[in-house]
Amino acid sequence: MRNILQVSDTSIFVSTEDGLYIYNPVNTTYRSLHKEPMNPFSLSDNALYALCKDREGGVWIGSYFGGVNYLANTALTFEKYFPTALPHSLSGNAIREITRDHSGRLWIGSEDGGLTMYDPLKNMFTRHIPDVTNGLSSTNVHGLLATGNQLLVGTFEHGLDIMDIPSGKVTCHYRAGPGPYDLKSNFINKILQMNDGRILICTAHGLFQFDVAKGRFHPVTALPVDAFYSAITLDEKGIVWVGTHNKGLFYFNNKDTASLKLSSDTANKLGRTRILYLMPDKNDHLWVCTIDGLFNIDLKSHTFRYYSQDEGLPSNIVYSIIKDNAGNYWIPTSHGLALLEESSKRSKPSGNMMDYLITSLTTSLHLKTPMARSTWGVLRA
């Protein structure tokens, strides 16, 4: 035993040569925390010495060989999954995309390890790394869409795979070509299925409507055919919103196709940035996440409210946004997670979650599950 620190009425921390012990004097129980070699989020060392509680209630833990560890004072916790040497773990570090199939299983695409299926009922991961058996074309996965028994797998510069979910094998593969119904880019960035079943595919060179039955890609010629399409969403009115790199924001439906022009955006900031994510909201509002901040657009007046580091965001590079059941907005950025409270509409860093997991957010993906959970993809987890 090296040190003792009373953190609260129900928690006494004890540092030892064999990890950290947290004792609850009220119910006379304890739990222990130890270094786990394959868990990057565990203690960095078992030989622990100094203990110090900060003004936010977090505890700093000094170790002999592993530097300083920090345990935040928060009731909000994350279940963390990461690649290990074990067969039933994630296959990649850089998680890019997550989609849910009709059975409730999650399909997780990474940029460095291919595809992983997660069964929440069994709490088990199944890896689908490209090989001659499954026929997957790349370990760098971007767009994903599960529709029926098919999984559409978009890749970085390796085209589009169509995988049969029950067998886990690729049945069709499409690459860019010169034909009138071919893709014009092998970089498949995003995939969206509309309410009527039509499938739209965002690529680095054009937006396409995909006819799965005939294996044909029809370019959406009403929009710029050479644009890099980086974000896509469908609002409750059936309008498709599409974001690009440096060509602005577009929308289309059965009646109209146009570029959205904002009357108050005199510098054309939205048209000159890279759009990373789009989220429709109530009362005809649209959130637009970019590398130059966050826009909340009023689609009726074509005005917007702009959020940046000046308004409290940790960074101007905003990857996505998710609305929780209380009406608050969670905003992952390149420098951590921010909370925008509905009551104040003022963004602030979520300090009680600033551990390594959250400050390493690098992609524009999350998935809100039916069980009131949010699944976030980040670098290394």
Describe the protein's architecture and organization:
- With about 375 residues, this protein is mainly beta.
- Among the domains are: about 5-70, no CATH class; about 75-175, no CATH class.
- Helices cover about 0% and strands about 45% of the residues.
- It is built from one helix and 33 strands.
- The longest helix is centred in the C-terminal third of the chain and has 4 residues, at about 355-360.
- It is globular, with a radius of gyration of 23 Å.
Per-chain topology:
Layout: E1 3-8, E2 11-16, E3 19-24, E4 29-33, E5 48-53, E6 59-63, E7 68-71, E8 95-100, E9 106-110, E10 115-119, E11 124-128, E12 141-147, E13 150-155, E14 160-164, E15 169-174, E16 188-193, E17 199-203, E18 206-211, E19 216-219, E20 229-234, E21 240-244, E22 249-252, E23 257-259, E24 275-281, E25 285-290, E26 293-298, E27 303-307, E28 322-323, E29 329-333, E30 336-340, E31 347-349, H1 356-359, E32 366-368, E33 374-376
Shape: globular
Label the structural class: mainly beta
**Arrangement of strands in the largest sheet:** 1-2-3-4
DSSP helical segment count: 1
Cα-atom radius of gyration: 23 Å
Portion in beta strands: 35-45%
Structural features:
381 residues, mainly beta, four-stranded antiparallel sheet, 33 strands
Can you summarize this structure?
It contains 1 helix and 33 strands. The protein is mainly β.
